[in-house]
Each structure stands twice: as C-alpha cells, then as structure tokens.
Queue: 2 jobs
Job 1
Amino acid sequence: MKFLTKHINKVIILSAVLLSIFALIIVLVSDTANANGDSIARLNLSRRVVDGTSPGFSQIGYVWLPASSFLMLPTIWIDWAYYSGMSGILVSMISYVMAAYFVYRVGESLGGRKLGVIAFLFFALNPNILYMQATPLSEIFYIAMLVGAIHYLLLWARLQKEKELVLSGIFFTLSSLSRYDGWILSLAAVGTIVIYLLLRRVRWSEIEATAILFSLLAFFGPVLWLLWNYTIFNDPFYFARGEYSAKFQQLSLLESNLLPSLHDLTNTFAHISVTSILVDGSMLVILGTLGAFYALWRGVYHREFRHFIVGILGLQIIYYVINLFLGNGVIFVPQLYPHYMHNIRYGITFVPFFALMSALILVRTRLKLLAPLILLLVILEYGIMFSTNNIITLNESLRGFAGASVHESRKDAGEWLESNYTEGQIFVDTFDNDSVVFYSHIPLNQWIMVSDPDLYGKALEDPSRVVDWVVIRDGDSLDERFLGGEWLKNSFNCRYVKDDIRVYQIKDDSSDDNTGLCADGLVKNNSHAEPRASL
Amino acid sequence: MEYILRITKTFRVPVIAIQRMVTSVYSHVCARIHFLNYPHRSEVGGHDYENTQDFLYLPTIHSAKHHWLPENISLGVVVGVLTLGLFAVLKFVVEISLLVFVSMSVTLFYVVFLVFKILVVIRGKSYEFIDFTDEKIAAILDDELPMYTVFIPLLHEAEVIPQIIKGMTSIDYPRDKIEFLITLEQHDIETRQAIEEVGPPNNFRIITLPDIKPKSKPKALNVAFREARGEFFVIYDAEIIPDKDQLKKAYLAFKDNPNIACLQTRLDHYNANQNLITMLFNGEFSFHYDYFLPGLQKLGYPIPLSGHSTHFRKLVMKEIGAWDPYNVTEDCDVGIRLYRQGYETGILNSLSQEEATSSLAGWIPQRTRWMKGFIQTSLVHLRHPFRCKNELGGWENFFAFLLIVPGTVVLNLLNIVSWALLATWFLTETNIIQKLYPAPVLYMAVLTYIVGMSVFAFLNIFALYKRGRYELVKFNLLTPIYWMLLAIATVRAVVQIVTNPHTWEKTKHGSHLKT
C-alpha cells in the first residue's frame, strides 16, 4: 500500500495505459474503431495533407477544428495506420491516458488523493470513454486538453507561478483547436481568473495583466482559426456560416421539423439529461449533480475558490443546453423524438465533471461511509453497460446518423471500386461520402474532391474532360449538378448501383452501354426526401 | 566488420587524394588572390596603440573604417551566384518561379529565426546569473580590491550631470581605488561647466578629446583607454544608475571566473512608464535581458554586448585591440571579437537603471545607429567567412552569429515587405496576391508570419509580467507597431551605410527630467 501511495502518479498512468490497451483490443476485435462515419472523415481530412491532387496544410479544412488532424500527421502517411484508423486511435489513446491522469490530479487538488483516485476510476472505467479512446474521433483529445487546462489553472491559483498560468493557457488553446466548446470555456476561465484575483484584493493592474497574458495564449488558437478561415474564404466566420457548417446543416433539419429542442427549454433539458445518463451512467449523473451543488456551497460559503475553477468543466453542460436551445447544435437520443441517435457522443465531455463532482461528494460528505458501496454500484452500472451492449457511443457509431449501417452503401461502393477500378481520376463530393474513398483503397491523388477547387470546378463544368469515374450518392451535390446522372449519359456508363450510390465510368469504344443500370437510381433521385440524406 | 573496414580503407585513399587536391587548389587560389589571404596584410603589425590619427588600434581588416573591401564584394558575388544557381536548379527540376523561390526563402528564414529564438529562450530559462550574497560582498576587504576605472563618455549632457555624479559617487567602492574618466569634446562647453558647477570629488577626471574624426563614442573610449589605470573597467553612459554594489560583484565574478573577460548586467528603465515608446522599449529590453541574452549565454553563442554597464578586464581589452572607432555599435563588434578570440562573457545579477528614449525623434536615430552598427559588424566579421566560422567554434555558432547580427537586420527589412503584402491582402481582399503565390506557400508564409509575430510579442509581454511591470502589459499588445518603427529605422540604416556610414546619431538624454 505504501508503495502504491508513494508511486501513485505512475500507478495511475500505468492503469490508464493498461485500460487503454485492453479497450483497444476489444474494439479492434469487434472491428468498430472506424464504425463512425466521422472517424473516416477525420482520417481522410488528415490524409489529404500528405496525399491528394493538391496536398499541403491547406487541406486541413475549415469547419472541423484542426488539432486532431494535425496530430495524426506523423503517422497518417503510413497506409496501415491510415486504413486501420491507428493514426487517430493513437492520438485518442495518448489523450485518454493524459485525461485520466489530469482527472486524478484535479481530484487531488480538489480534495486529496482519495478523491483523485475515485474520480480517476469513475472517469477511466466509463465504457463510453473507453470506446471513444479507441477511435480516431477528437472528443478524447478535447477532454484531455480541457482537464489539463483546469489542472494547471488550479495549480496556478495555489502557487501563483506564471508557468502554470502559461501552461493552462496553452492547454485551453489546444482544447479550442479541437472543439468549439473550448472557446466558450476559455472565456469562462478568463472570467474565473479575474474574479479570483479580485477576491484576493490584488491590484487592478496585476489582474488586468494576468487576464491579458492568459487570454493571449488561450485565444491564440481561436484567433488563428479565424485568420485561417479569412485567408481561405475571406470570411473569418466561414466555419460557422459556410455551406458545410453546422448551422447550414441545422437548417435542413429545421425544414424537416427535426429540431425538437429549438426554443424549447423542457425538451432541451430532456435531451441533455438523457444524453448524460446514457453516456455517463445514471449513478454518476445523480451523484455528480449533488456534488455540483455541494461544490457550489463550498465555494460560496467557505470561499474555497478551487471548486469554481473545477466548475468550469460543468459549463460544458450549460454550453450544450444553450446550443440546443438556440438550434446551433443537435443531439438526438433514441428515447425522445425523432428517436434517432446522433451526436450522443458529445455527452462524454460531461464525464470529467460528473466524475470529479461524484468523487467530491463521496469523499467530503457523510456519504463517505457508503463510498465503497456507491463506488461499487457505479462500476457495476458500467459493467452492465458493457455486458448488455449498451455502450451508447458504440451503438451510435453502428446505427446512428453517421453510423456504420447508414454508411454501409458507401462502404460497399468503395469495396466495389477497389475491385473494379482500373485507372483515371474519380470525381466525388466527399461530404458524407468519405467512406467510399476510404474503403476503395485508391490513393487520394486519384480523387477529385472539393478540397482541390480548381480541378473540382473544371470537373463540374465537364466531367468527361477531367475524370474517368464519377461517384454519385442520392442527394449529394453531384447528384443535383448532373440531374441524377442524366447529364452523364452521353459520356459515361453506369457501372455500379446499390442503394443510394451509383458509380459511372467514362465510355470508351469497347465498353458496353450500361446506362440502364442506373435507371432505378434516377427514379429514386427524383423522389428522395429522407432527412438523413442531408446529414 | 572486416569487409566494412576493407571498404573504408579502399575509399580512404581517393578521399584523401581529393581532399589534398582541393586544399592545394584552394591554397593556390588564396596565394594568388590577395583578398582571400589571411592573415590580412593590415594584421602584420598587430595592434597599433600609438595611432593618434583616428585612435584606431585595430588592423583595418577588423574595422568598419572601409566598408566595401574586396573581401566584402567577393562574398556578395559568391552568395549571389550561389543563390542564382540554386534558383536555376530548382527552376529546372521543379519549375519553380522566381516569386515562389523568393517567398519560400523568406518563409524558410522566418521559420528558422522563430525556431532559433524559441530555442534560445527555452535554454535561457535555466541560465543562472552570476550572483553573490550580501554577506559575501560585505566580507570583501578594501585592501584586496583592485583599481577600477569607470568610463563616462559624454556629449551635450549638461542636464543629467547632477544625476550622473550622484549615481557614480554612491557606488560602493573605496574612493582611492576607483577613477572616473569623463570624456568630453572640446566644443562641449555646457557639459564641462555643468560638471564644474557640481564639483565632483577628485577621483573624477575629465579627458578632452582631440578634435579629429570620427566623432564617436568608441573613439572617445579608445582615447580614455590609454589613460585608464584600472585592472578592470566599466562603461556607464550619461543616464545610468547602477546598483551600488555592482563593482564589487563584478570584482568577485572576475575573481571566481578567470575565463570570463567581460560581464554584462541586467538593464531596466527608470522612466518605463513615461509614454508609449518607453513602455514598448521596456518590454523589448525585459525580454532581451531576461531571456534572450541568458539563452545565448547558456548555449555558448556569440553575444552582441551592450554599450554600457559592461565590465571588462583591461588586459583582455588591450589584447583584442580595444574598440573600433568607426563602428557605431562598437559594443556588438567587441562582443563578437571577444568570442572569436576565445574569451567568455557572463551576466551579472545586478541591475543598471537607464533612461529609455522617450521620443520618436530620439528613438528612430538611436535604432538607426544600432542597425547601422549591426550592418557594419556583419560586414567586418564576414570578410573571411570561413575564418570567422573557425574562430567562432564551428558551423552552429557561425549560424547563430548570422541570425543574431545580420539576421536581425534582414528580419526587420523583410517585415516591411511582409506587412505590406499582408495589409494589402487583408484590406483590399484582393486576389492578386493569391494569384501570385501558390496556395501552400501563401498559407505557410501567412501562418509562419502571424505565429512568429504573436510568439515574439507574447515573449515581451511575458518578460514584463515576470518583472512585475503589470501596468505596461496592455500597452505592449502594440508591440507590432513598435516593430514597424524598427523596420523604418533599419531602412534608414541601410541608406546611411551608403550615404553616411560613420556618423554617430547621438541619443539625447534627460527628457524624463522635464516630465
């Protein structure tokens, strides 16, 4: 026991590493690492920097924040790492270990080693966290950066050293470069720093200087992102109002009456509550909520400011409440209308807060008498989630809007191309079609996508002069541009059609005219109005 | 293993033969081409301490007396030809345009400069200033202290004379072991009168400078140098207020570190809050003295010294030929020369308070002089680049020198072009620039430039914060504007190096006394 206590940091890190590897093995065996369409899109985004018709950093994108794509770069050029998803998974796994360690350290700062260990267990054993850390998705990286930022902010508040303030700012900016939530939380952190120093009666010039120093770092990422958008599109907010922005996508949902939480507070709370319970587990949500009130009480009546600093993590929940209420974001849970699964994985960003608050109330109140029992119950709930295949983030990856089942047709088309592709450029609208590209195993420099605007524009004008293949999915921009394939009839043969995907190959003298193969697709195209096609 | 050895041996013979051939050709070329010969003919007689014509003790090859020697021209031609050759190769191989070549080179330069400065700063954090406890300083016996000379070069400084005398007399050092040598031009009647009015103690001596050119601070120092009796000496400018125990600390540092030839101190401004210029100046100095210089020290790179509050061993200074009266940043030149001759420098944890130039009319000429001096120093030390490389201790130190001295000038000049392009692009939203540059080059250039600018501005702010100068932090967000002024001064320096190379634009002190 003494050994464990003495080497607690190493034990925590080692436990996280082992858990991470264990979870990875399960995910790899079940072949679900890349089940989520967004995983594949992220891998492609990073790969395009090193492979494509116009490779380079400009391919890093402009809607999805770039941190995780950047971090995949050291390995994304290796085919094995790209196609297995390991490029992104490695980032997530390292992030998981960091996040788990930081959760422990924040818990330790909040109320000692025991609190830290319990918070670590609540966080690190959560099945949704464990699944997500074995995927290329960016949420775990965001959590690691955010909890790291809080850890250093707590240290700064205790030690008053510039180094910790700087590190906190850097972690906040990294979180802001992985999810937009980080921007709001960085703002909250500035406010917290100012209030903290005001309460300590520090002179105003020092408060002002501290806030400026911290903000310069914390908002460096967002400012760079605005400049990046401006550089490419002459609009710093293109990520928020461009054609691939979340807001733009929300509009199509609104038209289909699929934004039930828009301007409906009850519905919004219902969505957030159900998401929290599904992802974090009911025990953790109940305990965490009680813990949050307890922390508020400690902060206000006992002037223990560290509770407010940790409280920044809780603003993550409020951020989503506001987002859903204003219609800037969307989360669908199977229990509520429209009974789909979409973006439930965002709920894992609440786990660190609930884990820490739950640990707080277990260690610092009379509940500590029942702590072992409650700890056991929480872990039991995690176990039930695991054993009953009720890991919601995994289910969402398999059956959600961006899930494997929806992407099945893209995957099939990609695999067909892998077997039948001979040579020449392939024209595709990559939005929501990344799986076709990914599963075809055809080098990205053979694909003409919107990421190369010059070639893309030329191909749109007259595809027969630029490309040999065209991939069309019902409702995508090429489908609309080429009137459901009608436009391609003179120059291309339809070689493949399945569900909503068609593949055309340019005609040559020897080829048969298979245009009729796609007749069904043409009919479908004229009648499609499925909402999920627009997601 | 045996096989490898055999192969190595087999190849060793031709390699040695090629080496010998190259060396032979090189020495033949050197023997026939005068300007590649070194030591230079002006070095044959060594230092000339009898020269009272212009008080240049150094061989002319180490002086900025003449800027465009054949060595400089030949270097320019070689660099030009190599650059054009590289461009030609790239154009042939990857069909690169001149514009892309230039912008890629500029971006590469920015990246290298950024990485270099960040590395220096990171290493600077762990540098330990040379320091001594109060007890150790108090334990020094007066008898053991050596003679110390304080040089005070003055020109039209009547207003600050009372401040100088007060500051100097309050230095904690036995009166009979310290001498103050004030240099004055013959025509500077008002300063002479001001000194006489204050009536300084008898260890103050006025040295009247002969009325000969160049009229510069290093010439004044060279004149005074012949008169100095101290084993160590320090230069204090007109406006300096050093820590009282600085000389004793310097003595202990020299005693404990026999390898150190020169000690710098940390500088700060007593009028930092005076106006925006002084605030920005203070941010720049805080970074330079707290992070950049310590980083250079830690890494063992050549150091461009400060012009004042710098302590020297007199013997070493005599050995290296004292100052170059023609170099308008004689401090920078001495720093590099010391390093080339194998001497070390250190930083003393002692503060010297000075006056920050507080008006644009004073600041621009001061910076022009500094940048002009950096150009002069570059020209002088790059006359024999390979010799310079060898004397500096290898390629790493040579590249550090290139980045620190000529690199600073180049950076300031490139900034003007970058700002102009950036401003045109942002303000006019024109696509011209996007059409001129390939997208990847443009994005990288913009990113590097913005990241670099942000990092350096942040470092100034951080240094101020660390010094507790909180009230200045917000004003230092305007650091990029300060750099624009620096760029203007650098352009002036480039013009002056052609039109007016040796003119010393004097910095006026004492404006803080009026406010």
Job 2
Amino acid sequence: MSQQRSASADVQPAGGSALVTEQGRTSIADSVVLKIAGVASREVNGVHAMGSGGARAFGAIRDKMPGSGGQSPSQGVTVEVGERQAAIDIDLVVEYGVSIPDVSQAVRRNVIQRVERMTGLEVTEVNLSVDDVYLGGDDEEEEPEPARVQ
Amino acid sequence: MPVDPDAVSAAALSCPEVAGLSGGLVGEVATYLPGRSVAGVRITDDEVEIHIVARWCANLPEVADAVRRAVKPVTGGLRVSVYVEDIEVPDEPGQSDVLAEQGAGSGARP
C-alpha cells in the first residue's frame, strides 16, 4: 500500500503535530478533504470529469435542476480521515490522447500537495481509478434545437 | 456559567478565515440556552468545542490556531478544540491557485 506514496517524495509531509496541540485538538471533517481533493484533481490538465458511471449520470441529472449550484466539487472522491492522516480514493475520466500514467502521477502529486498544505494531514495514499476516456463531442455540447416557429 | 458562548461565537467569527460556524447536520452542535441556542459552540466542563466552516485558504491548522488565539480571552483557560466541518470552495478552479499562493493569514477573500 505504501508504494503509492513514492510519487510524493518531493512533498514534505506536514506531520500531524500541527493538529494535536496542548491547547486543544484540531479536527478536519471528511467533507473538507473531499472538496480539496476534488478541486485539486480537476486542476490537472487531461482530467475531463470526476466520478464513476453512476455518480456522473446522477450528477448530470442534478446539474439540470435549477438551483443545484452546478457539479459537486467532491464528486468521485472518497476519503478516510483520521486524527493525523488521510487516505484518498479518486474516480476520474481522462481526455482521449493523454498519457494516463502521467496524468495520474500529476493528479496524485497535486492532491497530496494541496491536502497536506491546506489541512496539515499526512496523506498516506491516493488511489486513482480511471473509469473512462472522453472521446469528445458525444455529449454535453448539444446544439439547441432550432425553434419551430419564428 | 463561566464561559459565555456568545462571546466565543463572536470571537471565532472575527477571524477573517472563518466563513461561519457549523451546527452539524441538524444543528445538534450548539450551546442550549433558555429560548435559543448558539450554533457551533459546545462547552463542557473541561473543553470548548468550536465547529467552523473555513474559507478556501492556505493552511487550516493556522486557521485553527487563529481561532484559538481569538477565543482565548473568553474561554477561561479551558482546552479549545477546533473542528473544521466544511470549507468554502472557490467558484473558479483557477482561483484556488491565487489563494493558495498567498501567505497564511492573508487567505481572506478579496
């Protein structure tokens, strides 16, 4: 399990001492790590969308509803957060033509860096699952139908 | 009551990196008072819990330290536990770069 960590050799582990102090404990909720990891994954070029098939289908329906506020930043991310450490699993869709190993390394590095710098938690592992390749043009940018009456 | 929950709430909210206090899923995290409650602050015999929603900023442990410093005068020496329950995500993904580059402590939104 620990070999995933090797990608982040250049990231200084923030350690947990910043979170557990004599004056009291700082506890980071799961949703905080979810959102940071989601935003950090999307920042990387080559990542088209987040989430496994079911989550994306449900997300697409939810996006169409008024007042939904757009895609949830934590879609496709699950985390386990302890007092000092966090483990992160990410489902994503990459664009066609990218090198999946390079993109996953970049995602892993960015997620570890962002989560460790922002929360002070040590990230023990980031597991990526590439669920699909986006070929372009087959959904989303649909042409609106021309009006039938002028 | 030795610790005033309203003072704790006001002191925590005075930190620029704190977007708000979080009462939990159904508002169960609160100090219950006659006729009202103070959301996000729970006071026990030996500890004060503060549940916050943070702004998107560089470093959450530093935010927690800032909250701890801000509430210190009104908590009477009790241990202060800070729970970061949620974080506000910037609208544009690119914006997070700008905010993350800023030094901690200046992470407030423009």
